[in-house]
Automatic annotation (TrEMBL):
Stretch list, region Domain I, interacts with DnaA modulators: 1-127
Function: Plays an essential role in the initiation and regulation of chromosomal replication. ATP-DnaA binds to the origin of replication (oriC) to initiate formation of the DNA replication initiation complex once per cell cycle. Binds the DnaA box (a 9 base pair repeat at the origin) and separates the double-stranded (ds)DNA. Forms a right-handed helical filament on oriC DNA; dsDNA binds to the exterior of the filament while single-stranded (ss)DNA is stabiized in the filament's interior.
Coiled-coil ranges (or none): none
Annotated GO MF terms: ATP binding; DNA replication origin binding; lipid binding
Residue ranges constituting the Chromosomal replication initiator DnaA C-terminal domain according to the UniProt record: 397-466
Protein name, UniProt field: Chromosomal replication initiator protein DnaA
Gene3D superfamilies for the chain: 1.10.1750.10, 1.10.8.60, 3.30.300.180, P-loop containing nucleotide triphosphate hydrolases (3.40.50.300)
InterPro entries tied to this protein: AAA+_ATPase, Chromosome_initiator_DnaA, Chromosome_initiator_DnaA-like, Chromosome_initiator_DnaA_CS, DnaA_C, DnaA_dom, DnaA_N_dom, DnaA_N_sf
Length: 492
């Protein structure tokens, strides 16, 4: 957002409450305009439209968010975009306050300020715009956090809803075992590692949920590494560090997600080290997750790494085709819907690396279905998911293949479709037939007709000739691969 707009808005700051609210609305509207361009529409609608601007004065905008969770989510996921938007609108001196509605029944709210992650209290950020949080409550929220114990487990993450496959079988078995006997097994700590969106959080929380459901242990706590680190810094700044340490030492099952975020945070690591020792010595269960094997995390102290290796590390790999299908089926059942088998097959074939993306496809299809009231068939699926799934080959037209061949061999469409037996033309023609059969759904007859009105036996001959050459000749293999790449790019 250009700087001149910020000037206009700043000039409009005023002292009366009504005009402050107006100014706040204008500043916030301008921020929303910037954010709208940077976020996808679902995220924008979910997280930013429920926010109300409260007031704006001395270059400080206060916005009200519906809950602490809301605040944490925005800070964790959108703080960079939000800071940049504020900087665009208010310049580098602009500040943001969150007002969190903790309890609407309370009068006389007390206000405390917590520094934003990785920022000096009230100081400007790297982006030049500072963010602080103002909590309205009858009690200090950290106090609440400790006295009213919350597990922070998502009840949806259970073993029942977690599909087991070759990709996660060791991690699954170990997690089940830990959940039946936390702290009293050889897997302490249990470390689950693997790539993005493969179910680490789901699996570790499934342990916690099982322990709670069966009342095996009382205090089960799930915390992300980032939240742990932020709370730790806050505790130091607010003089609550003893309370903080005591709280974590009380836990029976401690689940820490994404421990790679501890890299480089020395003080936090020291605290974890002491908590780890206390819990381990008292046979309390520690469960950790990481996006890579422990030995590959840089910036974590050796003594901590060695402790993390005391128990069992189990990896989760991207699911295979059958597991992907089973996951889709299970998600559909949870949503009480069914899809055609070929729709499931299409998603399972094309989304291979991230289960969160598989879920994203289902959500998008259901949303589009309810919006347009159209049947979810294969063609609707392909159109709806075209941004997520790069639809390949089978949708290609013969014209695209023709163009790619002509440009590659420097021949004209007439050459390609004509009767010339010149080597590069005849080879180009046969490769065109081969690729048409490999990459499209067109029948042999259609392919023959397209490339010069030939019959289907000519197409089969062309296909077989090239197929054999691809098997036996490295040069032909690389030619065909290069052509496939060009065709893929041309068809996007
Ligand atoms: N095997 C599985 N069966 C069913 N659902 C799964 C499976 N694996 C992952 N999911 C689902 O995929 C989504 C992403 O999983 P989750 O958040 O646990 O991944 P993650 O590995 O912790 O991701 P990140 O690396 O981003 O932290 C969740 O909704 C989860 O329920």
């Amino acid at each position: 957002m250009p700087a001149p707009q910020s000037k206009v808005l700043l000039d409009k700051q005023s002292h009366g409450n009504g005009t402050q609210a107006n100014a706040a609305q204008k500043v916030w509207d301008a921020c929303l305009d910037v954010l709208k361009d940077k976020l996808n529409s679902q995220a924008f609608k979910t997280w930013f439209t429920p926010i109300s601007p409260l007031h704006f004065s001395d270059n400080e905008l206060t916005i009200e968010v519906p809950s602490q969770f809301f605040y944490e989510w925005i800070e964790e996921n959108y703080s960079t975009q939000l800071k940049q938007a504020l900087k665009d609108i208010l310049g580098s001196e602009g500040r943001l306050m969150y007002s969190i509605v903790m309890d609407r029944s309370q009068n006389n709210p007390v206000t405390i300020e917590l520094p934003h992650q990785n920022m000096p209290k009230n100081g400007p950020t790297e982006n030049g715009c500072s963010t602080t949080v103002k909590v309205s409550s009858d009690r200090d929220f950290l106090e609440r956090y400790r006295t009213k114990f919350e597990s922070h487990l998502n009840p949806k993450y259970t073993f029942d809803t977690l599909i087991r496959g070759d990709c996660n079988s060791l991690a699954f078995a170990a997690s089940k075992s830990v959940s039946q006997n936390p702290g009293q097994n050889a897997f302490n700590p249990l470390v689950i590692y693997g790539g993005v969106g493969l179910g680490k959080t789901h699996m570790t929380q499934a342990i916690g949920n099982h322990v709670r459901e069966k009342s095996i242990s009382e205090y089960v706590l799930y915390v992300s590494s980032e939240k742990f680190a932020i709370d730790f810094v806050n505790a130091i700044q607010n003089g609550n560090i003893q309370e903080f340490s005591a709280f974590y030492r009380k836990v029976d099952v401690l689940i820490i997600d994404d421990i790679q975020f501890f890299a480089g945070k020395e003080k936090t690591q020291e605290e974890i080290f002491h908590i780890f020792n206390t819990l381990h010595q008292s046979n309390k269960q520690i469960i950790l997750s990481s996006d890579r094997p422990i030995k590959e995390i840089r910036g974590i102290e050796d003594r901590l790494i060695s402790r993390f290796n005391w128990g069992l590390s189990a990896d989760i790999q991207p699911p295979d085709y059958e597991t992907r299908k089973a996951i889709i089926q299970s998600k559909l059942e949870q949503n009480g819907v069914t899809f055609d088998a070929n729709v499931i097959e299409f998603i399972a074939t094309n989304v291979t690396q991230n289960v969160r993306e598989l879920e994203g496809c289902i959500v998008k299809l259901l949303a589009a279905h309810s919006l347009f009231n159209k049947e979810i068939d294969l063609s609707f699926t392909k159109t709806t998911l075209k941004d997520i799934i790069r639809i390949q080959s089978k949708q290609l037209s013969l014209e695209t293949i023709e163009k790619a061949i002509c440009s590659y061999f420097s021949i004209t469409p007439n050459d390609l479709k004509g009767k010339s037996k010149k080597k590069e033309i005849a080879t180009g023609r046969q490769i065109a037939m081969y690729l048409s059969k490999e990459l499209t759904d067109s029948s042999l007859k259609t392919i023959g007709l397209h490339f010069g009105g030939r019959d289907h036996s000519t197409v089969i001959h062309g296909y077989n000739t090239i197929n054999k050459k691809v098997e036996n000749s490295a040069e032909m293999r690389s030619q065909v691969e290069e052509l496939k790449k060009r065709i893929e790019i041309m068809s996007i």
